[in-house]
């Protein structure tokens, strides 16, 4: 019995775990690379951190995780040195720091630094958590003054801060699972130190009492339950209709043992369903017992419970059973609803479909035969005229009824005759040897004929259409799957590569069901096709980088956007390869690697790729991009993007500037060196604050502070934007008090793509 296994590949869910467990008061965090040779760049920042500081993710990514961009006039240099020392020593650290937001607003922050290890025990990341304690810091400061001046040297305020820090650190780390037990002495108090999740591929943690829904044992059990369901669908109507008219008391208990066994099977099935995994809407296999119970209770539990009521135990305890008890057995037919749920498991086989259709047809005939027999019995009991079909059957078999209740044909003969009549009426108009005589029988016969016409058209008339509709694509799937397996066998591909190919094919087929969107939309008008593609790709088109594009430009871009899918461990891009597209992460998470070091962690909504090169320049990638979880991606090819920008030159210059501010990570080879050359070192003098408004429009410039002397170094990308200015040899001046910077743009460098401008800022 084929079932949907779900997505079973091991995933690195570190980012999802951190984001989930930091939900709430501790949602402000950063992740920094602990293996960097040139500082410790930030590889991920949460939305909460962006809201707290006012910086965007693009502005924060790849900056040093010492967070000097948050420093200001009142930031303690001692704390900054302690942070650097903790980073160098890869140690945990906690302090209260006076930080500044992007708009210049100061705030007190409780900072926690925790190193993150991988499965090898190596420090690979730093986890920075930020807690705004401006309100509590002020209260603590005043309370420390009220304690008396005799404790001024002992710094009671710092003691209060340490106590609050212990509480916050415990609240922070207590959210994580305890991988090991240790103790840390903070302020003389011994507390447990829970572990932080490791940055590694998460192993599937399943209790041995959890049953896999795709296992062989579960498949065999489902077949057994299927047979039991059919048994119930056949015996329950028969027992309700024929058993009350059996001649002996033991006849009604002839199937007692089997009925009780089926009831026990249904009860056991309920218990097993509480411990059986299932596939969530996202395609993930759920192993958690609590989630399994909630899912089952909210879906099929009550139906299964009602269908499993042990009514037959009344016979076992010799309790007198009335006809109403027999009618209660009909609730077991609710079990057929479970059968409808599993029909899709059998629908891929034509033989199984035909068998199920014929079984449904025969089951309907069986139910109508039971009703036909009840009508005949009621006619005998209430009608003085001996014209019912049972009277006629008794006369032909020479077993007539005496006094309307005694005698008559056997139950076996009556059932066979009733089934014969209903089947002949459903498939044709009948032959007349068993016919309706009374009014009730004629009315029911009319109903049978109407249902028979519907069933004949539905079952027999549509069998061919159902098979053609269902198996045209299924046959294509099996054809491609067979070709894929033949290819694997002929070329002797290794098992790991074979598994990756099969899983990718099955997953992509389940997403698009073998439908080629480009081929499907090929015959549609361009206007309609553009509207459809804009709807399909609305997530990527809503990025800030496309805000300046006109609707016509967006429609043209949407025609070049395609979708892709990555499984955990799959490399989307390899270092040194040619980069042909920019990628947008729709779901899942990826990591950017260089020399086995994590440079960035990408999540939903991130954009990776490169800026626009020259017309004939081939973009080489500077890092690997590897999927951590199952990822859905959208991408636009560099060639298609270039073609659209040539059609809309007014947007091309805007895009060339905005792409730098919207790329989460620039994969173009050499972009990291350019970023290091783009650093501007200025003194910590307050005069620098006066020239910030003059520099706000120069988004390509990266500005940092130096406490020794002031060296101004700028590198302007996309020199073609400034071609007119260079051709005229213009001069640009920035002044701030007594500080002047002058640039001479010479004609001799106009042919270069990159322009280096160096000057000295005296102050």
From TrEMBL:
Residues 14-90 form the PAS domain. Residues 139-155 have a biased composition (Basic residues). It is found in: Membrane. Residues 545-645 form the Cyclic nucleotide-binding domain. It comes from the Eukaryota. Residues 136-162 are annotated as: Disordered. Pore-forming (alpha) subunit of a voltage-gated delayed rectifier. Activates at more negative voltages, exhibits fast prepulse-independent activation kinetics and deactivates much more slowly, but shows no inactivation. The potassium channel is probably composed of a homo- or heterotetrameric complex of pore-forming alpha subunits that can associate with modulating beta subunits. This is Voltage-gated delayed rectifier potassium channel KCNH4. It comes from Sphaeramia orbicularis. The lineage of its organism: Eukaryota, Metazoa, Chordata, Craniata, Vertebrata.
